[in-house]
Amino acid sequence: AAGVIQSPRHLIKEKRETATLKCYPIPRHDTVYWYQQGPGQDPQFLISFYEKMQSDKGSIPDRFSAQQFSDYHSELNMSSLELGDSALYFCASSLGVRRGVGNQPQHFGDGTRLSIL
Amino acid sequence: AQRVTQPEKLLSVFKGAPVELKCNYSYSGSPELFWYVQYSRQRLQLLLRHISRESIKGFTADLNKGETSFHLKKPFAQEEDSAMYYCALSDKAAGNKLTFGGGTRVLVKP
Known about the structure:
The structure holds 2 protein chains of 2 kinds.
Chain A: E1 5-7, E2 10-13, E3 19-24, E4 31-37, E5 44-50, E6 53-57, E7 64-68, E8 74-78, E9 87-94, E10 107-108, E11 112-116
Chain B: E1 3-5, E2 10-14, E3 19-21, E4 24-26, E5 32-38, E6 44-49, E7 60-61, E8 72-74, E9 83-91, E10 97-100, E11 104-109
Parallel strand pairs in B: 2-11
Antiparallel strand pairs in B: 1-4, 3-8, 5-6, 5-9, 7-8, 9-10, 9-11
C-alpha cells in the first residue's frame, strides 16, 4: 500500500540558509501534519492542514511556514536556519476529522533528517 | 492543555517475559489514545488505538478513564519487539493533532 512520502530523506544546510521539505500524503488523505523530533526527544507538533487550509498550529517558529497544495501535498519552508533546527521532521497524513467518523489515525512518513552545520 | 506521560524511559526484559509500558494522560475532554512504535531507523508506525480494542502483534491496551491511563501490555515479549514506543493523545478540539509522551525504549534480551 502507498505510504506517506517525504523528500529529501537527508538535508544538510548551514546557518542562516533556507530549506524546503516536501510531503506527499497517502492517496485520498486530505489532512497533513508536520512534527519535529529533536535528538532524544519525542515528536512535537508544528502545524497541520485540512483541505489546503491551516487547521492547527503548534510550536512552529515564525521563521517557518508551510502550505498544502491542490494535490494535497505539503511543503515546510524554513528560513534563517539555526543550529537548534537540526532534527528529524516527520510528516503524517490522515483522512479529515470532519468526515464524521471520529479521529482518524495518522500515518507517518520516514522523515527528513535536517542537519545544520 | 493535554499532556501524556510515560514514566519509564527504558524497559529491559528477557524474551518470553511479560512487558507493560505505562502511559498516563491529562485531557479535559474525551480523548482518543494511540500507541505508536518506532523500530530502529524506521518511521513511526501505528500499533494500537483505543477505540479499536484489538490486539496487534500480541500487544493490548485498555483505556482506563478513572485512572487516566492507557498502558500497553504483552504477555510474552519477543526480541523483535525491541523498539521505541510512544503513547499519543489525539486532540479532537484542535484538528486531530497528536501529543506524544516522552517515549519508552524497550529492549528485549535473548
